[in-house]
Fold this protein.
Amino acid sequence: MQHPRPETLKKYGLSLADWEEIYHLQGGLCPICKRTLAKPVVDHLHIRNWKRMKPEKRKLYIRGIPCNYCNRRRLAKGMTLEIARNIVDYLERFELMKLK
């Protein structure tokens, strides 16, 4: 398991115990691609005034610990549940069209 740097924990308002709890709840896997976390990163909800928040408040917006690839490529800045559902709908429509 690759632990985050102390600066990273501080930035997100996490203790090492907090980070390890998230990691173990995910089974040591990326919650998106389900692969072993080689380069884990902290994912958070991108909200207004994030940089001005105190770290203990930032902690409330932590979504999980995905791999670096999924965080940058699949979750992308601004990803929300609504956008994710729209993506699923879009891909499902394509699959249905392919079957016709």
About this structure: The first strand starts at residue 43 and ends at 44. The two ends are 46 Å apart (CA to CA). DSSP finds five helices and two strands in the chain. The helical segments are 6-12, 16-25, 55-58, 68-75, 81-99.
